Amino acid sequence: MRWVASRVRTVARRWARRSHSLARRALYAGTRRQCPVCAHSARRFLPYGIVARDDARCPACGSLERHRFVWLYLAQRTNLFDARPKRVLHVAPEPCFAERFAKRIGPGYITADLQPNLAAESIDIEHIPHRDGSFDAVYCSHVLEHVPDDRRAMTEMRRVLKDDGWALILVPITTDRTIEDPSITDPMERERLFGQHDHVRRYGRDFVQRLEEAGLGVTVVTVSQVARADDVVRLGLTAAAGELYYCQRR
Ligand SMILES: [Zn+2]
User: Which residues place a Cβ less than 5 A from the ion ligand 1?
Assistant: First the structure.
């Protein structure tokens, strides 16, 4: 009986979620926006964030500006989705990407996260448990601002790359010079100083220099390199998309 009740609750929850999602899709139905990740068209994207950013989140796949930018860049400018077998490490896999990457990349696609159950492998990126030169690509977005020794993590990502491999690394850049202080551990203080309760620093424009010091050559990619000006709003690639850092071993 208990099993039946629990099953009924699960089905009811699933149904509520589904009808909520259908209602949301209907509310946002239209063609003025199109998500390059899932190809869904919408009147607008959904608002997103605590201080809501309007026109940000895809109502179908949940992608944000930076995800749509990354997707276009990966599809247009990298070898990620070509047919050749490759080994790819995806750190802290975003739900809007994981299944799509798995389908396109195949068995060489490995997801990893510090927390167990969020990815195939539980990995601390300060100590990546893979051999030198074992990956064709590493993708790591909005992770390093949570990592105590980010320099070590950068060096590790470089180490596991093949000689001709590449890493796409993104962080939020919210100031000029990077601000960090390992003695600050109080979540409220971190939120005040670094912008989020679990961030250990606030990155500045010198992020590129930090990657270079870890032995990576960095190409900074901006939205204008992957989208025409009249597509920026339609594809939801507004300022919040930020920049991409395409890194290769030096
Ligand atoms: Zn989408």
Answer: 35, 37-38, 40, 58, 60-61, 63
C-alpha of residue 67 to centroid of ligand 1, in Å: 9
Q: Tell me, in angstroms, the distance from the centre of ligand 1 to residue 168's CA.
A: 20
Task: Tell me the whole-structure pTM to 2 decimals.
Answer: 0.88
The rounded Å distance from CA 31 to ligand 1 centre is 13
- In tens, the pLDDT along 151-199 reads 999 999 999 999 999 999 999 999 999 999 999 999 999 999 999 999 9
- How many CA atoms lie within 13 Å of 70's alpha carbon, on the beta-carbon side? 25
